[in-house]
Amino acid sequence: MSECGGRGGGSSSDDAEDEGGGGGGPVGSGSLSPAPAASSEGRLRRWLRGASLMARRRPELLCGAVALGCALLLALKFTCSRAKDVIIPAKPPVSFFSSRSPVLDLFQGQLDYAEHIRQDSEVVLLFFYAPWCGQSIAARAEIEQVASQLSDQVLFVAVNCWWNQGKCRKQKHFFYFPVIYLYHRSFGPIEYKGPMSAVYIEKFVRRVMKPLLYIPSQSELLDFLSNYEPGVLGYFEFSGSPQPPGYLTFFTSALHSLKKGDSGRGTQAVTLGVFSVHLKDFELHSFRLRTRRLSGRGSRAQPLRGMWDPPGLGHEPVSPASAGGLSTTAPPGKPFTYY
């Protein structure tokens, strides 16, 4: 027993070196590590030798294997080439607003139809939305609330601008949703960028409906000068015509002011007022207000004179659309006034 363990004389250690490669059990185990790799190579060589021998004896098996491999490669290539055409079509859109809503919902993105019906209405609100957008979903109830109050005077149209087959998605490229556009006849769009709250949206829509503030008395004139800054006053003679010379330009300038200012952009829109009273009374207030500041939230507004006829007794002005249509071009010799 003592001889097999390698603890005796030299002869026993020599025998161990001859059998195990020297060095005892733990050391000899490291020298045997290449054996699995050598055995694997041997098995591979034997398999190749057997396959070569089988191919020489039965060549039809080799031809069948080659044909099967080619067929598998062709099938794989055909499948990969058609993989890009295997696309699941998107589900068709559904109504975003209910059928009882005062808002006309063009949920298939029919932008052309929206532009068509817009031509027949004086004031139009277009609500561009994406059905998945949380802000669009939250603003839906606010738009419906405003429409329930103003649907008899304003056309409310909602357009799905996300569906990839709709014309709105193809023609418009919005970076956010929802988007609200307002049109006053052919003028627009006036984009609303304020809070998505029914109170603020309704207030802005009413300003687009009546961009000019009519001032029928001296008390309202003082209120206008005290509470509206910046503000501009225009004098018109309405006794002979509901749309005197220069009034269309003044009206369009008010819409330009709404488009460029207010609406949450950080700049305040200029409020334009229309005044028509006795010339003597107006001149008295006009010259006084030019030389002193009124008490109130704002400073005085500068009256505009010289471009229009002297004011006189008349009636309340009407919208240019009601008086014969609103044009985006000013009358000859009356260029637009920008602010």
Automatic annotation (TrEMBL):
Pfam families: Thioredoxin, TXNDC11_2nd
Region (Disordered): 1-41, 298-339
Low complexity: compositionally biased ranges: 29-41
Protein name: Thioredoxin domain-containing protein 11 isoform X2
The Thioredoxin domain, residue ranges: 88-210
Gene name as annotated: TXNDC11
InterPro entries: Thioredoxin-like_sf (IPR036249), Thioredoxin_dom-contain_11 (IPR052792), Thioredoxin_domain (IPR013766), TXNDC11_thioredoxin (IPR058777)
Bias (Gly residues) ranges: 1-11
SUPFAM superfamilies given in the database record: Thioredoxin-like
Taxonomic placement: Eukaryota, Metazoa, Chordata, Craniata, Vertebrata
